[in-house]
Write a structure and sequence with these properties.
Structural class: alpha/beta
Mean pLDDT: 92
CATH superfamily of the domain at 301-392: NAD(P)-binding Rossmann-like Domain
Number of strands: 17
Strand order of the largest sheet: 6-5-4-7-8-11-10
Helix content: 25-40%
Radius of gyration: 21 Å
Distance between the termini: 43 Å
Length: about 400
């Protein structure tokens, strides 16, 4: 019997998303294709704490030894972290540790506000980009040893941030333990994470992939934090990564949870039932079949089309629907780290935008960045579609 990592209750397998590769590994040649990891992706669900797990028997080190996601190439993310830095400034924070700091997108904003900050990220290639810009970044995972190293060499932060990394953590309970041992007394933990209730309500299961084995409700996050003595101070829904939640925890039993956080907790009781989850997974499955049919219709009508954006969800959708380069000849991505490589599993070529090669229709997999994509293409006659569900945007 599989046990939930949050509450140790029985966790049930409710759906398979087929054979899937590692969604953030972009092969560049035949040798890398031959060594590509492929495994069946099973969705496991705990209806006690409202938590989803995608079991994957592979070392966490492999996910991040080479990483191809750069936060700063997305204008919307740049704006988001500018806003977050403003809120952190309002906390009065003096020293911030940013876990999973990527290319330093938050660090750069904090420095502009004269806030002392340090990043830690397991990806050597991405951390190097940050350090070359003068953004102080340690290479490695946030664990007991790195927490002790930071405490000895940099001091204790009064705020620890973790944006879009909590789903990656192998042992989320130890995360809170390490935060507790490192933080100043009265310090806060600010977590931004892809929110399970948003994924389910929008049947956006393209956001499921092995690199992120854990998907949380706010209830589940509270249970994890409580094991180290942290209480929820505040939470709010944020419009980033297709729908996320920001939760702030503090080690102070006298703090009352905000009303908006309580409202979120009440609402997710009905949104995250097992029946609802299975129904939405079935909708996702049907929508992927529709996408493949729509693509073939475009081809049969000789309409010039392309895909835009090759985030991890591109991998989940194309592998589940078995969409190859026969259906999608190429995908455009703005990250130079991905360009000239192939998409995971289906090996669709990834290209940079060539304005002399504008298509009539774009299927936009990075749909949350649609406004900046439209501005780049700057042609009013182009039609843009979200892939799942297939609809014009």
């Amino acid at each position: 019997m599989c046990k939930c990592i949050v509450c140790e209750a029985k966790i049930d397998e409710i759906k398979s998303l087929g054979l899937q590769p590692l969604a953030n590994k972009y092969p560049k040649d035949k040798n890398e294709i031959q060594n590509e990891f492929i495994s069946s992706m099973s969705v496991h669900y705990c209806d006690n704490c409202l938590y989803v797990n995608l079991p994957c028997n592979i070392s966490r080190d492999i996910f991040f030894e080479d990483y191809y996601y750069l936060s700063s190439v997305n204008r919307e993310l740049v704006d988001h972290f500018d806003s977050l830095a403003h809120e952190i400034n309002n906390f009065g924070s003096k020293f911030v540790l940013d876990i999973g700091s990527n290319d330093g997108i938050l660090l750069s904003k904090l420095l502009k506000k004269n806030i002392n900050c340090l990043g830690i990220d397991p990806s050597e290639n991405v951390s190097q980009i940050a350090n070359e810009q003068g953004l102080k970044t340690l290479v490695g995972f946030f664990d007991k040893d790195s927490a002790n190293y930071i405490k000895t060499n940099f001091g204790r932060p009064d705020l620890i941030t973790a944006s879009s990394v909590f789903t990656h953590l192998e042992d989320p309970k130890s995360f809170f333990v390490n935060c507790k041992n490192l933080l100043k007394k009265g310090g806060r933990i600010l977590i931004e994470v892809e929110y399970l209730a948003d994924i389910v309500s929008n049947f956006a299961f393209e956001r499921f992939y092995f690199d992120r084995p854990h998907y949380y409700s706010l209830k589940a996050m509270i249970k994890l934090a409580e094991t180290s003595g942290y209480v929820l101070e505040d939470a709010k829904l944020i419009n980033v990564h297709g729908g996320s939640i920001r939760a702030v925890f503090i080690e102070d039993s006298n703090v009352e949870t905000s009303n908006r956080a309580r409202e979120i907790l009440e609402k997710e009781k009905s949104e995250l039932s097992k029946k609802q989850l299975i129904s939405k997974l079935d909708q996702f499955s049907s929508s992927c079949k529709v996408l493949k049919k729509k693509i073939n219709n475009l081809k049969n009508k000789n309409i010039k089309f392309a895909a835009y954006g090759c985030p991890a969800r591109f991998s989940t959708i194309t592998n589940f629907a078995e969409i190859t380069n026969n259906e999608i000849p190429y995908v455009i991505d703005d990250s130079p780290l991905k360009q000239s490589r192939l998409s995971p599993g289906m090996h669709i070529p990834i290209r940079q935008l060539n304005k002399e090669d504008i298509a009539d229709v774009y299927i936009v997999f990075a749909y949350e960045y649609i406004e900046s994509i439209k501005q780049k293409l700057n042609k009013p006659t182009i039609k843009f579609f979200r892939p799942v569900p297939f609809q014009e945007i």
